Queue: 2 jobs
Job 1
Amino acid sequence: MPALLEVDDLVVDYLTPTGRVRAVDHVSFSIEPGEIIGLAGESGCGKSTTAHAILRILRPPAQISGGRVLFKGRDLVQMDERQLREYRWNHISIVFQSAMNSLNPVLSVGDQFVDMIRAHVHSSKSDARERAMNLLQLVGIDRTRIRSFPHELSGGMRQRVVIAMALALQPEIVVMDEPTTALDVVVQREILQQIEELQQEFKFAVLFITHDLSLLVEFSDRIGVMYAGELVEFAPASRLFREPKHPYTVGLMNSFPPLAGERLTIQGIGGAPPNLANPPSGCRFHPRCSHCTPSNPALYALQTRVKPELQLVGENHTVACHLYGDGRER
Amino acid sequence: MRYLVRKLGFYLSALWIAITLNFIIPRLMPGNPADTLFASFQGRMSPQQLVALKASLGFTSGNVAQQYVTYLWNIAHLNLGLSYSHFPVPVSTVIADDLPWTLLLVGLSVVISAVLGTLLGIIAAWTHGSKFDSLLPPILLFLLSFPAFWISLFFVYIFGLNLHWFPTAHAYAIDQNISLNWTFIGSVLYHAFLPASVVVIITLGGWVLGMRNNMISTLAEDFITMAQAKGLSEKRVMLMYAARNAILPQVTSFALTLAFIVSGQVLVESVFSYPGVGYDLVQAATLNDYPLLQGLLLIIVVAVLIANFVTDLIYVRLDPRVRQEA
Amino acid sequence: MALTHPNTETAIATPLPAIQATGVSRLRRFITFLLENRKAGLGLAIILFFVLVGLVGPFLVPYDPSQIGVGPPLQGPSSQHWLGTTQLGQDLFSQLVVGTRHSLMVGLLVGLLSTLIAIVIGMTAGYLGGLLDDILMLFTNVFLILPFFPLAIVAASYAQAFNIKGLTVIVIVLTLTGWAWAARIKRSQTLSLRSKDFVQAAKVSGEPWPRIILFEIMPNMSALVAASFIFATIFAVLGEAGLEFIGLGDINAVTWGTILYWAQNNQALLLHAWYWFIPPGLCIGVFAVGLTLVQYAIDEIANPRLKAQRIPKLRGARTRNASPTASATQVEGSTDAGIA
């Protein structure tokens, strides 16, 4: 049986006046039904671009230059506009980072539910409204709020509205693109809890995108870590938490205090993300990697010249790093 | 309500400033303004005319403060004095006769320009990067660069005098009487066609470019991506999500262009001898009919302010964020 | 009066990039950009052409523009009289060339003066804020909303009665009616600059405010000032022509506007003397086009987002084989009503 969603060798380029910039570089992973997949990395690493590519909502100058996105075996990259319209929201929906900006300021919440429902389901206006009110109730918002305009709702409420909207047609996958980043910590927690509860109830799969790795660890089943457009590590959440392999993953882990648990000293990662228009040779992380020093000339040459491939280092655990495999260290 | 009250307060103060400017301008002239002004009319005017003229400009008895109060009092009672060039017809009568024609012409051209311009702007943004989209702005900018009165001259020459397609003057055919039948309405529209076209031409560019640019920046918003991800049809995304939001700044900037439209209108009416207040204004200026000039300026200012207030009301209807506050 | 829709102006109201750049390097970059940009190049060429005609032309014209009877009356273009003659037998080509000088002088002078007023009022209001800001902006908004042309007609008509002759009247009237828009834009720009670190630093170090305005804020507004100068000049050239066309100002001065006034008053249209009224109108229009082109190029400097703006097009969602469509687009920020 094929995976629910399979991202296969996906390549996304930004066509800039000065040339191609590869934002997503041959990324592959799959999502099983009901699974929560986390995708982590610094801003600009290509995680949001990957999510947008999956819904085919990339805007020029971004374009899918290669690979396939298979939903139950059907390639989305080959779909035409009409097929896409049918696929979007029915099967896969998305929650954006900023709910304020993802709601149309001049339409009432109800109207925005209704036009979405009626774009997919044969339904009268009043039925669609009824359905919208039930959805609002589901996320803990008063039914009468259906008449409200986005600016009349608080940030947390708006994000709940957007989540309710994403669940409206019971899609198999919900993409969450940093859904809580714009909110304060308390509200963040509430929303995450809500997402978890809803997920338990409706069993949809989630692709959760964030720069906060610690958040993913307690929340998701499997986690992918992206760096400079590439997937550098992919592992079950508990495994990744216990033994992160890639030095970048280790760095990310140390960048955030865990939401629960003891206090730790926070260590950031030195340096800045690379310029994707002109990425470093070899391993893209090598300029920032503490394990990359000329003191080990053979390894250093490898790190600076040869691109590491993803390799299996444990059960369901892959990593792209020269420190592992081929009988080298560890 | 607060929003509209605040706006209304602003318009009232604008009106007051305009009226006061009207009072001050003749007094700003060098020397002893009243004497100089009226000396130039000696012999050209009857004594009654001179008295009427003085009264309408506020040169009444008493000191300046008293004069100012009398002046305001007269305006409040729509007592604008007697026209010198139409003596002894009151200024208010002249204006009442001609204002409807101006309103017709402005109304017609503004509606056409707004509807057409907004549509073209939407199409241009929708087909961004197409030939249509890349050719339209430069053409419009080119048209915007010519004085309205010169375009009027050009139209009169080409479409009136050479091709004989349209009449070159007046609001309706001389053999017609003002009445509400189709022949008359037809004649009015026929006569309004060229002048209205000129006003449309000089205002269209603003609508098109404004709408196009607003649309393009609105299309970059998240809620457009979201609407698209929701699987809505392209038409719905474009109209209810993009255009519906992009039109808001258009409404506000329309209020700001009113002054430009009215200014263009004045000379267009003059070239086409269209019997509106703009034509009167030019006539009054060349004949030094100051009472009429003052009255016309006043009525134009009031009209522009009312139009602004109506625009605010429309804006409040269109934008829920302001509606709540209003 | 066809003026560029103020809407196109608002793009400038957004903060300038690279704020910290020094005035000199900014100016150099600015000039380099103008020279490299195709639109600006064409615009500058047009402006330069007219300036050159205005400077040198009057010394080279074949006839005295006001001299009556240098040719037969109302003659079409010929080798003697390139643009024909008036019904008094004046040479129209000479009038057009000499008129260029006067029209440009008035346009540039008004542009300069109203930009100065706008700078003083806009920057003072924006920088000092408070009650003064409220009062100045109320005044500015009133001027913005009042129909300037009728106002100009009334003022010019009075001036005429007092025998204030010459182009002075036109300059004063147009300056007084033309500064408001630019003042508002400058105010909002100053407001946003005022909160920037380098201005705050200067404030803390005790620099007096006129100095801060002149040396800290002004250099960062060069593009804006240039754009509004151009806008004011377009306004002035068109406004001047309009006022002169109806005989206000000095009808004996030779300008583009007065040529049109005499053409209209002598029934040039009915007499089919197209060569009398077409060329001056074309000059006004082409000169305004030149200015507009430069103004648009400056918009692009002031707001590089416009230039780099890629096309968010829905159809573009189908991404394979999409070609890069790099077109510089004018995108504007929201128009703030800002009234009251």
Job 2
Amino acid sequence: MSMISMRNVSKWYGPQFQVLKDCSVEVEKGEVIVVCGPSGSGKSTLIKTVNALETIQNGEIVVDGVTVNASKTNLPKLRARVGMVFQHFELFPHLSIIQNLCLGQEKVLGRGHDEAVAKAEALLKRVGLSAHAQKFPGQLSGGQQQRVAIARALVMDPVCMLFDEPTSALDPEMITEVLDVMVELAREGMTMMVVTHEMGFARKVAHRVVFMDQGEIVEDALKEDFFGTPRSERARNFLSKILSH
Amino acid sequence: MFSDFDFGVILRSLPYLFKEGMTFTLTLTAVATVGGVILGTLIAMIRLSSLPVLPKIAAGYVNVMRALPLVLVIFLFYFLMPYIGQWALRADQPIQVGALSSTIITFTLFEAAYFSEIMRAGIQSIPRGQVAAGYAIGLTYRQVMSYVVLPQAFRNMLPVIFTQTIVLFQDTSLVYVLSITDFLGAASKIAQRDGRLAEMYLFAAAVYFLISFTASMLVKRLQRRLAVAR
């Protein structure tokens, strides 16, 4: 059974504008999927439907056996098991780094404070930011904030991770430190769905690449096939633009 | 021009002015601020919610309160509250509401309208990504509000809340219409008893100015500190 299963997902903004057109993707346990495509192609919307930050009007999404778009689904419980990393980090600026990492553990998982702190410290160490536990998000660089955001998702022991353009708001010199953490995570066998333009990352760790354009999944191919011989004209076009420099 | 003035009257009445008058003024300011912020936050959350009907009622309440002069509201509540109480508690007679409880309730309800507008702006100033991040780690709506949105909204709005409190501190003097002894009321009573109107009102003005001005200076400093912290 797939970890994430999206079948014929459609979404409209208003009656006219269809952002997602009949999208189907399967992500197996331990698989890393990179979703790419031109801006406005619906890739961010697609990934946000997985933990129901965006609702859908048609189709079905199942995450680890739980139907996301069923009305009886306990969404907070589901979301706690799906880690998410945002483009703009979205750390809570009024809380220290350690408090950022403890909030979900204590309020959602009901862990005790000491247990939560221990777990938070372990993950901060893993992303190389132990020294910053008591600081506030505003005192860290973008790259550091994004690593904290990854740690904040990981403290919840998620079954899979969603990344929504995790490096596109970062200065070039900070992209590597974030990608390094993600590569390590991928190699440890985490199930990941990553919206990104970092084709280097895709080549290195992705199993499959999903290419979207105008709300449609144009191509869903093994990494080797996608970079070797993309079948569609649109994907070839996109690749030539993004890889030309 | 001050040759006929007797400033001794001020000295003699200090204990009365402050122990009776200022204590009441500060208590009313504090209670109405705390109550107004809590109630105002609730109203703001209702207005921003997608509940049926309730947001419209909340908006109506705020608009009515903001469109009426405070003195009028003080009067209206004082005269109407016994009947509202009677209706609410299904009692046989109008409920006795003293001038004191009446003013406290009035000021809280009145200020809630203003604080709700402040908190509404504060809540709306929090980026939607923050809310999404709260949901993403599994928080419920209530938890996102209490741990993510409201603390930030409150912190961002703190200088405005304090500024509104300073205005409220001055407005509490309107309780004179119900013959309650606040600071100005106390000064006014002494002034009329001893025929020392100019002295007492000048002194009262000096005290209001000193407190309000110092408070606004402190708010400005707070504002600068918050700007740095953000």
